[in-house]
Every structure is written in structure tokens, then in C-alpha cells.
Amino acid sequence: MVKIKDQLVADCEKKMKQTIENSQHEFNTIRTGRASAALLDRISIDYYGSKTQLKHVANISIPEARTIVISPYEPKLIKEIEKQILASDLGLNPGNDGKVIRLVIPALNEERRHEMVKLVKKIAEDGKIGIRNIRREVNDELKKLENKKEITEDDVEEYHKKTQDLTDKFIEKINEAVLSKEKEIMEV
């Protein structure tokens, strides 16, 4: 029975780590006034009849702090890439010279910075909810094992504490990531 309980806690930790990674990835797609290739992660283009992420059909580089250069592997994709960037929620205007697309990242105004911070906090809250849901699932599973008389009440308490410790640890990681991203967004 110890293996089942330990496996529950190990699975709990693995799922919580994945939740943190997902939240961090979402944070990386938020525009901060600095160039980042991660801004383009949500952009997909029609590539021979299938939706393909931009990073799979073009080289993306950051030559300067506020500039992204996209070099499509096939020059005929430039118009499609421009169209998808304009259709995205990034608010960027692509410029091309026939071979590459340049995106200049404008500085964010104060109002837009506050909107971005709110978005980061919403993503963080969604991550925290995900972590708490994982904790609840593990605790429910422990209760089921106790009801089946497969583990003792003391075991349940011990593993509740372990899952709570994991929950606290991962929620703290999300809080740290939020503070970091908020600081990055509010930089002028």
C-alpha cells in the first residue's frame, strides 16, 4: 500500500510541475515591450493544407532588444505569415523586404502595462486553481483508499500533509513567476 500512496504523491508532483510549466509558457507569450520569440508561439499558418506553428516554417531571431526577424524557409510564405501576425492579438505591424519580416516591438503605454499585469495575474490564478484541483484529486483518492480499508487514517493525514506541502511549494513558484513577469512588464 505504501507504493500506491507514494505513487499518488509522485503523480501529484508531476502534474503540478506540468501546471507550472504551462503557466510559465503562457506568461512567455505575453508581450512586455521586449522582443521574444515566444511571442509568436501562438501563431500558426496554413502550410500545404495544415495548420503549422510559425517556428516550424521560419527562422525566428532577435537581432535587437525590440526587433524580431522572421526568415521563412520558403519566401512564398511571407504574405501568409504577415496575414496571421496581423490577425493575432499581438498588435504588431509586420514589415517585409521580400525575404524577411521585421517586427518592431513598441514600448507599452501605462494603461496597456496594467492590462498585461491583469492578464498575468489571471493566468497565475488559473494555474493555482489547477494545482489545488490536483491536490483535491489526490486527497479524494486517499479517502477512497481509506474507505476501502487499504490505508489507515494516520496514513491519510500524513499524505494529506505531503500533498499540502507540494501545493504550497508550487503555488509559491507561481507567485514568484508572477512577480518576475510583473516587474518585466512594468519596466519602462
Structure in a nutshell:
The chain is an alpha+beta fold and 188 residues long. The chain is built from four helices and six strands, in the order αββββαββαα. The chain has helices spanning 2-28, 78-87, 110-147, 153-186, and strands spanning 44-47, 50-53, 58-64, 67-72, 94-96, 101-104.
How far apart the termini lie comes to 56 Å
Mean pLDDT: 87
- Supply the helix-strand structural class: alpha+beta
Biggest beta sheet summary: 4 strands, antiparallel
The string of secondary-structure elements, in order, is HEEEEHEEHH
The gross shape turns out to be: elongated
Binned, the helix content reads: 55-70%
In which order are the strands of the major sheet placed? 3-4-6-5
What does this structure look like?
This protein has helices spanning 2-28, 78-87, 110-147, 153-186; strands spanning 44-47, 50-53, 58-64, 67-72, 94-96, 101-104. The protein contains 4 helices and 6 strands. The chain has 188 residues and is an alpha+beta fold. The strands form 2 sheets. Strands 3-4-6-5 form a 4-stranded antiparallel beta sheet, with helices on one face. Strands 1-2 form a two-stranded antiparallel sheet. The mean pLDDT is 87. It starts with a helix and ends with a helix. Helix content is 58%, strand content 15%.
